[in-house]
Design brief:
Helices cover 37% and strands 14% of the residues. It is built from 10 helices and 8 strands. The longest helix has 15 residues. The model has no long low-confidence stretch (mean pLDDT 94). It binds magnesium ion (MG). One of its GO terms (biological process) is pyrimidine nucleobase metabolic process.
């Protein structure tokens, strides 16, 4: 603490990792399992299958997360939603620790960079995934969607990134490195001046997003100087960001 009570800023840069479909492959089909559970939750509100799909998708499109629509328009307990949707995912059967990924984290030069996770999930799910992947001790800080807070924000809303920077006590966005499987999330970060944004894209695989299945495709407009680097393997970060690896 400095004399005026503010925390002294850490001079190191910071690398933010998204968790779901970034630290593990979309081929695990966890997004499909998640989508089924969210759909079932909508059905418990008294909707038929089609209405449930429609409302799920419309909340997702409008609010970024189905849960944000549910908390606004229905009398539901967000923690009950979390327990029934993310909480029942058989993650132990779907993901395994990856020694190569752990080594990648260990090779990040901690004298130069802090390593944080930035997720749209609640902390319980995020911590569960990190534990199964054997990465818990590699992540210094976690920014998650606080479902318990009324009107909580999420990626890609600018407020979410601003809050993340506040939590990590970093004021210069150009010192932020960021990798996420959502192009929207990465674009939003780049717009806010985050210095080193990378889109993790496993082209050809399918995910369920907002209740709809979509095929992952690379952004082909790579001549655009504003285009964001795309990778299909996190190992590529070593070559893209050599300055933060040992
Ligand atoms: Mg993700």
């Amino acid at each position: 603490m400095s004399p005026d009570g503010t925390r002294k800023e850490d001079p190191r840069t910071i690398v933010w990792f998204d968790i779901d479909n970034t630290l593990y492959s979309a081929s695990t089909k966890i997004s499909q399992a998640m989508g089924q559970r969210i759909h079932a939750y909508f059905v418990t509100l008294g909707l038929d299958e089609d209405e449930a799909s429609e409302l799920h998708h419309s909340y997702y499109t409008q609010y970024g997360l189905a849960l944000r629509g549910l908390t606004r328009h229905h009398n539901i307990d967000p923690m009950d939603f979390d327990r029934k949707c993310d909480g029942t995912l058989p993650l132990d059967d779907l993901i395994k620790p990856d020694p190569g990924l752990r080594k990648l984290f260990q090779d990040l030069d901690r004298t130069k960079v802090r390593v944080w996770a930035l997720t749209n999930a609640y902390k319980t799910h995020a911590q569960r995934v990190l534990k199964i992947l054997d990465l818990e001790d590699q992540i210094e800080g976690l920014v998650y969607c606080d479902y318990q807070q009324i009107g909580f924000t999420c990626k890609p809303e600018p407020d979410y990134y601003h809050n993340a920077m506040k939590q990590a006590n970093i004021s210069d966005p150009s010192k932020c490195y960021f990798v996420d499987d959502s192009q929207l999330n990465v674009r939003s970060a780049k717009k806010l001046g985050w210095g080193h944004c990378v889109h993790f894209c496993e082209a050809g695989l399918e995910i369920v997003d907002g209740g709809k299945t979509k095929k992952l495709v690379l952004d082909t407009n790579t001549n655009d100087p504003e285009s964001i680097r795309q990778i299909s393997d996190l190992e590529e970060l070593r070559t893209l960001w050599p300055e933060i690896f040992v």
